[in-house]
Write a structure and sequence with these properties.
By secondary structure, the chain is an all-alpha fold. Helix content is about 75%, strand content about 0%. The chain has one domain: Orthogonal Bundle (Farnesyl Diphosphate Synthase). It has a two-stranded antiparallel ribbon. Helix 4 (about 55-80) packs antiparallel against helix 9.
Amino acid sequence: MELIDTLIYSQPQMIPDAIRLPYDYLAAIPGTNGDIRTQFIKSFNDLYFTIDNHDTIATISEVITVFHNSSLLIDDIEDGSEFRRGLPAAHTKYGVALTLNCGNLMYFVALQTAQQKLPQYHPSDNKNDIALSILNILVEELLNLHHGQGLDIHWRDHLKTTKLPLIEEYMEMIMNKTGGLFRLAVKLLGAFSTPQDKPTVLAIANLFGIVFQIRDDLMNLVDDKYSHMKGMKGEDLVEGKLSLPILHCLHTLTEDSPVRTLLYQMDMKQRQQNLQLVEEAVEYMKVETKSLEYTQNLLRLYGAKIIELVGPDTNSFLVQIVDKLRNSI
């Protein structure tokens, strides 16, 4: 009875390091874009919110970073990716089960961090209302993130039996999947300070999600450095994903092509064994359907829209990073 009483009246212990190993492993690998989300948050604050409490900005950045890294752990499992940032993906080192649990665990760590820390920095006396407002923001964008990710997976896994999504549907999907963390950042900032132009702030956050994703879609197919980090060129084709250039290609020409052969006639294992056909498919999208050019033009168009909204003469990190993203391919 003494042991039982000790257990049932005790508080849960801290998270053991052993079950955080996949997250800590991934977090220690430098990202391809540096600490861009933290810079995004600081720049957004300087332009639109002017929150002068360093702890508030640091905690919001911490929460976004944990959500981002946690989503990568789960994404790599869902995509069957063997590499992340040029090194073995976490689940290939620590196993699918532990990595999946760790990714989900760290979502709740981020939620707890936001709930416990952020209300302390708010000037309002009613900390409970602030905590509830923050929780609602977090839940809303986590739902959006999983909504977008779910559609991405559904289109990939049911390509042969599902109607091909429209370009507009794809854009809406990535606004949820990739834009969610950008919106989450500005909404958390907005819980502490009301921006002068809230619709514009949210529009910029949405556009950043689109720009990041379609640039990633393009780099996946054409960039040698990206291919090295992922372990192969054209990883999206090998995985059977409907990225923007792939989707554009399928909509542009319905006749037989290397792209259709890969996606409609082969499974992932067969695609992995036919990398020459993957290269032919990339060339086909470049020459025949101009899908790579189409994607690059959209990247520049959306990047220009961000600069227009921010203000082309604004000396801001937001303008600098958009210029870099849209002109570096």
